[in-house]
From TrEMBL:
Domain of life of the native organism: Archaea
Domain named Nudix hydrolase: residues: 14-139
Gene Ontology molecular function terms on file: hydrolase activity
Lineage start: Archaea, Nitrososphaerota, Nitrososphaeria, Nitrosotaleales, Nitrosotaleaceae
InterPro entries: NUDIX_hydrolase-like_dom_sf, NUDIX_hydrolase_dom
Alphabetical UniProt keywords: Hydrolase
Protein name: GDP-mannose mannosyl hydrolase
Length: 139
């Protein structure tokens, strides 16, 4: 199922929360943060993630986000937990997963043009994602 057009998307977010997945991609003891090109969190360091689609299971959503946002196939190592954020115009409930690259080389989509692996959580990280990284064992 594809994402609805922007009009329907904005109408939906006025009434219902979004179910999302966020990925903590790990490599050599470091984690990936991307610099967002769009709202929410435009210009901030964030985890790659996205909204689930109707009929999509969590594992399938994680794999789709890995392919669409990072251009790679990912393997789930563990679930980190679930988190909730209420924005002025949107309500997200997200499931966070620790993942590794199964196949491919990272390239970014329109949502984030750049990314970098970190050993420690940078101060520029959006607060919503800091909690997920801390719960995954990073500081």
């Amino acid at each position: 199922m594809q994402r609805p057009d922007d009009t329907l998307f904005h109408k939906f977010q006025s009434y219902f929360p979004f179910c999302c997945v966020d990925l903590i991609l790990i490599k050599n003891g470091k984690f990936l943060l991307v610099k967002r090109s769009i709202s929410p969190y435009k210009g901030k360091l964030c985890l790659p993630g996205g909204i689930m689609r109707r009929g999509e299971k969590l594992e399938a959503a994680v794999k789709r986000i890995g392919r669409e946002e990072l251009g790679i196939d990912v393997e789930i190592k563990t679930s980190v937990g679930f988190y909730e954020k209420i924005y002025p115009n949107r309500h997200d409930v997200t499931h966070c997963f620790l993942v590794i690259t199964k196949k491919g080389k990272i390239h970014y989509d329109y949502q984030a043009k750049t990314g970098k692996f970190f050993k420690n959580i940078p101060k520029e990280t959006a607060p919503f994602f800091k909690k997920m990284l801390i719960d995954a064992g990073f500081s």
